Amino acid sequence: MTAEIISQKYKHVIWDWNGTILDDVKLCTDIINGILTKRNLPPLTLEKYKEVFTFPVIDYYKAAGLDISGNNFEIMSHEFINEYESKKLNCSIFKGSLEILELFRNKNISQSVLSAYSQHTLEETIKYFNLDAYFIKLVGLNNIFAASKTENGKKWIKELNINPSEVIMFGDTLHDFEVSREMGVDCILFSGGHQSKEVLASSGTMVFNSHLELL
Ligand SMILES: [Mg+2]
Q: Could you tell me if 99 and 197 lie in one domain?
């Protein structure tokens, strides 16, 4: 599959944002490692991070070794998001992602973003990278706890009013794949994001290593 073939087969592309367009993998690893070391717990290597990262995010905090009991998860979520908000604009977008957005736009394939991040963060970041003109809609969550985007996805596919067989989703996690199944759309996963190629391969869907590969 190449971006060119995708543009012949589909009418709409739904993008995940974090780890699919925005390369925030190093930032997220650094933040979770800050949270771990503050609690005298060993930090994660990048490889380990990409093994344990999952949705809902609370499960990955637990797998990383953090105590999520009581209000600990809420406290750590705020720690995470404060740090993330202050540093997110230092991230860059993945090599080749702009070229793919451009290619689809030139072929009149409409595009949108479906993200588990808060609506505010999503809009602000996409605007900062000057990418808002590529998308007909940005769908985020109304909280910071990154639980699931399934409900939003099902709502969006109805509203979009395009046959799901003509829609494809690009993501970097098994959750993106699960959401795509719920929406009835095809899915391509990218292993340069928050989960490893091995984890993603368990879905049985197409996995690509980089955006350049799609071009
Ligand atoms: Mg993602």
A: yes
Ligand 1 centroid from CA 94, angstroms: 12
- Residue 81 makes CB contacts below 8 A (sequence gap 6+) with 118, 121, 144
Residues with Cβ within 8 Å of 198's Cβ and at least 6 positions away in sequence, in order, are 51
DSSP type of residue 11:
S
Select from 52, 51, 35 the least CA-distant residue to 43: 35
Residue ranges making up the domain that contains 116: 3-23+93-214
Residue ranges with CB less than 5 Å from ion ligand 1 = 16, 18-19, 172
Regarding whether 199 and 127 lie in a shared domain, the answer is yes
pTM comes to 0.93
Structurally, the chain folds into a number of domains equal to 2
Ligand 1 center to 162 CA (angstroms): 23
Mark whether 103 and 184 lie in a shared domain.
Answer: yes
Residues 42 and 108 reside in one and the same domain: no
The string of pLDDT tens digits covering residues 150-166 is 999 999 999 999 999 99
pLDDT of residue 1: 80
